[in-house]
Each structure stands twice: as structure tokens, then as C-alpha cells.
């Protein structure tokens, strides 16, 4: 598999782009003309820079408004092409992309266009160059790859071929079976992009909202299956127009791009096993059986406060690490670990972020296979010295540089609590409140990071993504999207903050980066749990009484049910499949959220309609802006 990416897809000058693209593992790069024109150097300098970073220049693009022109515009178009050929020869690339004309003076006609391309092919052949024709979805006369192919077919020139672009085809919902009949040697390059499904002008959609394959909603896999069926084995090149990408990290976006292509072709290979494709070998996506543990990094003072909170919430101190200052708290199937070590990764995380949930452990089918797949997809593997009495638990770096550990039932990893921890004799005592398991974990990040981490999770794990939801914070919007395992035992919410004034934005600012902000713990009886919590001295987040009057009217609740919700500060939601109950603890630290939930029936949501009201309540308890931490 040969991979490429267009320079327009990432931020920076050409030198920065080449370095990031090469470091991510791409084989080639498309030179977008505007990037070249802004460069203060010769075409030969650009070619040398690309070569020095190990990149092949796969394409020079775009050449616009060429075919079907009347005179004198036609003659000038050939003169322009000759000038571009000069540049290409100095760059060291042999392929130029010609996109279908949008010129108001173009005349149209397949035979007329084929005649123009045949002459252009003759001129290109004299220089050892090739021309690829692409149908723009908004082209004046040609906006369908089938028409572009018919022009190339009638041109019948070895130096003229087709450029297939997934966005151009999928944006117009063109039937994909037509691709399978195109001869592979007439496809000169394949460009790939995804996009969210948005009803808007095609040109505007294309120029601002493209993203990596797997980050959007278009059937890019099916498009690529059709291409692969032709026997095409040339470059797969990303052409991404996206406002956020242009202002983001060139390194991170390049890594995402390479990951998206590897995952895309892994899917194609599994769907079309008979096809011969050179793709890096890797295990299939990994099933997740739930969250085994959440681990906090803290100092001794914060660890004491957090431990007191957990005991109030019904957790018991179940074990202490055999060689480290690490304590295990447990209730039901929930394991929460507090690490107060003064060296190692946990300590480094505490120094940077303060007390935080810096790591989580996932129950997976095969821990070694999980790491192998993650590494093949460009994830950063985490290694730390194993101390006395410790297991070597496979791990990778995740959101905000935190850790994701993997445990399975195939090895001693499932015995980690017995091997690494000494039981505490009082572990069977305590005031449990009926919490059973971790319902979901919420990770907060800058909004522009969301697509990257979405791709990270869905490419490695056997998960699906739900549609994005806007969460209304009194200070702005927070974008939220959920990743779920197929059996719903693993649920992860990704929350993207656009403003530092939101609760999510405050968390990022005060903890110096993205991370786990929200832990939702399940109970089978929310009212019994609320009563037991109250008996333990727990004071819930206080919800406005106005909320309950509205809920009673909106859902037609019996007054006694509304009174029970009101008296316990429990939030309520309902859909066609079931009911959802939420109870919140006051925020801990700089906005860490602990929530207790009960799902009844087949309710599959997360109480999004309640978010504005609980956020307003949480923000009333926040430290006023400008007031120092005590």
C-alpha cells in the first residue's frame, strides 16, 4: 500500500509539512499549487526538500478550467499547461491533476473534451509526463466520475488517465458499481476524504468540512472496495480541506491521516479477502468488555480527600499495592485506584495536571493483540519499569497523554488485583450504596481534537459512534459524541470544548490539558442508592426546583414520582425505549464529575436534555474567576 497526502491537508510551510508527512510514515505528497506559489524558492528546491525527507511527489494540482474552451481561451489554456509542465519537470513529478471545468465560457461536449485531452496527452508525452482528469462534484458540464471516465476512454491516450476522488463521487451519491469496470491502468491516482453528512452547497461543503476516512459519515469503505476490485495498486492520497486541520498540529493530523488509510484498507481487506492488497498485517478490531479500573494520580493530601469521598460513596479500601504507594477502592465491579508514588509516570502526570484520572484499564479479548493493532495504527506504546511484585500490563498513550491499560482473561492479567495488591482486612465492611459497574467514562478535550480521538478509538476497538450532540453550557456549546462497544458494556463520551468559559473548557484550562473528567457509575435502584448516600452524609448537587416542575409537565409524571425526584435531586429523561435517572455529586477538584445513573428498559442515551441544568448547578459551585486555589 502506497500512501500520500496533499499539502493542503495540514498546516505549516512546505518544510514543516514535509517533515510531518514523512514522520507519519507516508510515502508521497501531493503539491497543492497555492502552497508552491507561497514558497520562496524554486521548484527544484521543493523537489529536493521532498526527496530529503524520503517523499515522492505524487501529483501537482490543480490545473483548472482546461477542457471545452472556445478560442482564444483554448490556446491560452494549452500555454498555461506548458508552463505547469515546466514546473513539474523541475519538481520531479510526472502527474498533473486537471479538474473538470467550471468556466462560464466552457462549451461542454464529451467528444470536444476528449479531443482537447488527446492533444494535451501528446504534449505531456513529449516530456515524459501524465495527465489525470477528475470530475468535480460542482463541475459545469462534468460532475460525475462516469462522464470523466468516458472522456478519458474516448481520449484513448496512454498519458491521460482518471483521478478518482471519494468525496466528489460520494457527495453526489453516485452508484459505486460503475468504478469496478474501469481498467486499473487508467486510474492514475485515488484521492480519499470523508465528511459529515450536511445538507449544503457542494463546493462549500468540500472546501471546509472534509475529514479523514472514518471520521465522517460517507461510505468511503464501499468506495474503496470498488476501487480495489479493479486491481488498482497505486497511491492512496488524502486530500482534506478542513478549517480546523489548517490551524492544527501538522504532526498530529499527519499521524491521523496515515492511521485513517491503514484502517480503511484493513476494512477493505476483511470485506474483500480475495483481493490481493499489500497492507500491514494486524489483528482485527478488539472487543472491549468494559472499564476494569480508573486510576488517579494524586499527592497524599488530595489522596486523603479523594479517599474520604469514595468511602462516603460506599467504596471500601480493598487492597494496597505490594511495593508502591497505591491504594485500591472497590464497590461492586468498580475498581478505583489512587496512586501517590513520588516517581514514575503517575507522579509526572500529577506534577503537570494535578490530581487527575490519568489512566484507565480496559477489559479486552486479547491484550497483546490490542497493543499490536494499536501500534500498527500509529498509537504510542507505553513502557515503564516493572517493579517487584508487578505484572507487565500492556498499555498505550491516550487522550491528553494519559494511559490506557489492557487486561484479558488469557493471561495472569486478570489476576492483577490478587497478584499486585495485599487485601485489606476491613474490605468486606463499609456502607455500600448499591453501585454495580462503570456505566460510562467521559473524556474532555478541545473541540478540534475530537475527530482525532474518535478515529483513534473506532479504528482500534470494535465500537460504533453515535451522532454528535450539542450540549448547551450557559457559557457556550460543548460538542459531545459517544463511542460504544457493540454490546454496550463499554461506553465512552468525548466532549469537545470550544470556549474556556464552559465547564469543560475550565477543566482543560485548570488541569493543563485534555483528560478524563466524568465518571458515571451504575446502580439498579437510583432511589435506594440516593437514600444510602444520604445516610453516609452525602450531599448531592442541588438542582433548580424549576427543573422539576417542567419535568413533571413535560413527561406527564405522577406528582409523587416528581416529588421523589425533587427531594433527592435526581434528574430524569425518557425515550421510546426506556427511562434514565441521574444523580450528581458536587464537582471534585477543578471540575471532576461523579454521576450515578440508572437505566430502565432499553434507554440508550446519556441524559443530554438534562445537561444545561446540571451544568448550571455545577458552575454555581465553581471557584470564582480570579480567586486563587486554596
UniProtKB/TrEMBL annotation:
<dbReference type="InterPro" id="IPR029068">
    <property type="entry name" value="Glyas_Bleomycin-R_OHBP_Dase"/>
</dbReference>
<dbReference type="InterPro" id="IPR043700">
    <property type="entry name" value="DSD"/>
</dbReference>
<keyword id="KW-0479">Metal-binding</keyword>
<keyword id="KW-0413">Isomerase</keyword>
<feature type="binding site">
    <location>
        <position position="595"/>
    </location>
    <ligand>
        <name>Mg(2+)</name>
    </ligand>
</feature>
<dbReference type="InterPro" id="IPR013022">
    <property type="entry name" value="Xyl_isomerase-like_TIM-brl"/>
</dbReference>
<comment type="similarity">
    <text>Belongs to the bacterial two-domain DSD family.</text>
</comment>
<dbReference type="InterPro" id="IPR037523">
    <property type="entry name" value="VOC_core"/>
</dbReference>
<feature type="domain" description="VOC">
    <location>
        <begin position="437"/>
        <end position="586"/>
    </location>
</feature>
<feature type="binding site">
    <location>
        <position position="518"/>
    </location>
    <ligand>
        <name>Mg(2+)</name>
    </ligand>
</feature>
<feature type="domain" description="VOC">
    <location>
        <begin position="287"/>
        <end position="409"/>
    </location>
</feature>
<dbReference type="InterPro" id="IPR041736">
    <property type="entry name" value="4OHPhenylPyrv_dOase_N"/>
</dbReference>
<feature type="binding site">
    <location>
        <position position="191"/>
    </location>
    <ligand>
        <name>a divalent metal cation</name>
    </ligand>
</feature>
<feature type="binding site">
    <location>
        <position position="134"/>
    </location>
    <ligand>
        <name>a divalent metal cation</name>
    </ligand>
</feature>
<comment type="function">
    <text>Catalyzes the conversion of 3-dehydroshikimate to protocatechuate (3,4-dihydroxybenzoate), a common intermediate of quinate and shikimate degradation pathways.</text>
</comment>
<dbReference type="InterPro" id="IPR050312">
    <property type="entry name" value="IolE/XylAMocC-like"/>
</dbReference>
<keyword id="KW-0456">Lyase</keyword>
<dbReference type="GO" id="GO:0016853">
    <property type="term" value="F:isomerase activity"/>
</dbReference>
<feature type="binding site">
    <location>
        <position position="239"/>
    </location>
    <ligand>
        <name>a divalent metal cation</name>
    </ligand>
</feature>
<comment type="pathway">
    <text>Aromatic compound metabolism; 3,4-dihydroxybenzoate biosynthesis.</text>
</comment>
<dbReference type="Pfam" id="PF01261">
    <property type="entry name" value="AP_endonuc_2"/>
</dbReference>
<feature type="binding site">
    <location>
        <position position="440"/>
    </location>
    <ligand>
        <name>Mg(2+)</name>
    </ligand>
</feature>
<dbReference type="Pfam" id="PF14696">
    <property type="entry name" value="Glyoxalase_5"/>
</dbReference>
<protein>
    <recommendedName>
        <fullName>3-dehydroshikimate dehydratase</fullName>
        <ecNumber>4.2.1.118</ecNumber>
    </recommendedName>
</protein>
<dbReference type="InterPro" id="IPR036237">
    <property type="entry name" value="Xyl_isomerase-like_sf"/>
</dbReference>
<feature type="binding site">
    <location>
        <position position="165"/>
    </location>
    <ligand>
        <name>a divalent metal cation</name>
    </ligand>
</feature>
Amino acid at each position: 500500500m502506497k500512501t500520500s497526502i496533499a499539502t493542503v491537508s495540514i498546516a505549516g510551510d512546505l518544510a514543516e509539512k514535509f517533515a510531518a508527512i514523512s514522520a507519519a510514515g507516508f510515502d508521497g505528497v501531493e503539491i497543492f499549487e497555492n502552497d508552491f506559489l507561497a514558497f520562496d524558492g524554486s521548484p527544484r528546491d521543493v523537489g529536493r526538500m521532498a526527496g530529503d525527507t524520503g517523499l515522492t511527489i505524487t501529483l501537482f494540482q490543480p490545473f483548472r478550467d482546461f477542457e471545452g474552451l472556445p478560442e482564444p481561451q483554448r490556446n491560452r489554456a494549452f500555454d498555461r499547461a506548458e508552463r505547469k509542465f515546466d514546473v513539474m519537470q523541475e519538481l520531479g513529478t510526472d502527474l498533473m491533476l486537471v479538474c473538470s471545468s467550471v468556466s462560464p465560457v466552457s462549451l461542454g461536449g464529451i467528444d470536444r473534451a476528449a479531443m482537447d485531452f488527446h492533444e494535451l496527452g501528446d504534449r505531456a508525452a513529449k516530456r515524459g509526463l501524465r495527465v489525470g482528469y477528475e470530475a468535480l462534484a460542482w463541475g459545469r458540464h462534468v460532475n460525475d466520475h462516469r462522464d470523466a471516465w468516458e472522456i478519458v476512454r474516448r481520449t484513448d491516450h496512454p498519458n491521460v488517465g482518471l483521478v478518482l476522488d471519494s468525496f466528489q463521487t460520494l457527495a453526489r451519491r453516485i452508484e459505486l458499481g460503475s468504478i469496478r469496470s474501469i481498467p486499473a491502468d487508467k486510474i492514475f491516482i485515488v484521492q480519499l476524504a470523508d465528511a459529515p453528512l450536511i445538507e449544503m452547497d457542494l463546493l462549500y461543503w468540500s472546501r471546509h468540512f472534509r475529514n479523514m476516512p472514518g471520521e465522517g459519515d460517507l461510505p468511503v469503505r464501499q468506495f474503496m472496495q470498488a476501487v480495489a476490485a479493479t486491481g488498482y495498486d497505486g497511491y492512496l492520497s488524502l486530500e482534506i480541506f478542513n478549517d480546523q486541520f489548517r490551524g492544527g498540529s501538522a504532526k498530529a493530523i499527519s499521524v491521523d491521516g496515515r492511521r485513517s488509510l491503514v484502517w480503511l484498507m484493513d476494512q477493505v481487506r476483511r470485506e474483500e479477502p480475495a483481493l490481493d492488497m499489500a497492507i500491514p498485517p494486524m489483528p482485527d478490531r478488539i472487543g472491549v468488555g468494559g472499564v476494569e479500573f480508573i486510576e488517579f494520580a494524586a499527592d497524599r493530601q488530595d489522596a486523603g480527600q479523594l479517599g474520604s469521598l469514595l468511602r462516603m460513596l460506599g467504596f471500601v479500601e480493598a487492597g494496597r499495592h505490594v511495593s508502591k504507594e497505591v491504594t485500591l477502592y472497590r464497590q461492586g465491579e468498580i475498581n478505583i485506584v489512587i496512586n501517590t508514588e513520588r516517581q514514575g509516570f503517575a507522579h509526572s502526570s500529577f506534577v503537570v495536571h494535578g490530581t487527575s484520572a490519568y489512566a484507565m484499564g480496559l477489559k479486552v479479548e486479547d491484550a497483546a493483540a490490542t497493543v499490536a493493532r494499536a501500534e500498527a495504527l500509529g498509537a504510542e506504546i507505553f513502557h515503564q519499569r516493572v517493579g517487584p511484585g508487578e505484572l507487565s500490563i500492556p498499555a498505550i498513550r491516550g487522550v491528553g497523554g494519559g494511559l490506557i491499560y489492557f487486561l484479558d482473561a488469557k493471561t495472569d492479567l486478570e489476576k492483577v488485583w490478587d497478584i499486585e495488591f495485599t487485601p485489606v482486612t476491613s474490605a468486606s465492611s463499609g456502607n455500600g450504596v448499591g453501585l454495580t459497574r462503570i456505566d460510562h467514562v467521559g473524556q474532555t478535550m478541545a473541540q478540534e481534537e475530537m475527530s482525532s480521538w474518535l478515529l483513534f478509538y473506532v479504528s482500534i476497538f470494535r465500537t460504533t459512534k453515535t451522532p454528535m450532540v450539542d450540549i448547551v453550557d450557559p457559557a457556550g456549546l460543548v460538542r459531545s459524541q459517544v463511542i460504544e462497544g457493540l454490546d454496550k458494556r463499554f461506553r465512552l463520551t468525548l466532549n469537545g470544548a470550544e470556549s474556556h468559559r464552559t465547564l469543560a473548557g475550565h477543566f482543560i484550562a485548570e488541569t493543563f490539558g485534555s483528560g478524563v473528567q466524568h465518571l458515571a457509575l451504575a446502580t439498579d435502584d437510583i432511589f435506594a442508592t440516593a437514600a444510602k448516600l444520604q445516610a453516609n452524609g452525602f450531599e448531592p448537587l442541588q438542582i433548580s426546583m424549576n427543573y422539576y416542575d417542567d419535568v413533571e409537565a413535560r413527561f406527564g409524571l405522577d406528582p409523587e414520582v416528581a416529588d421523589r425526584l425533587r427531594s433527592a435531586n435526581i434528574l430524569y429523561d425518557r425515550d421510546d425505549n426506556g427511562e434514565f435517572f441521574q444523580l450528581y455529586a458536587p464537582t471534585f477538584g477543578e471540575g471532576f464529575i461523579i454521576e450515578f445513573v440508572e437505566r430502565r428498559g432499553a434507554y440508550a442515551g446519556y441524559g443530554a436534555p438534562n445537561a444545561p441544568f446540571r451544568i448550571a448547578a455545577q458552575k454555581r459551585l465553581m471557584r470564582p474567576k480570579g480567586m486563587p486555589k486554596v
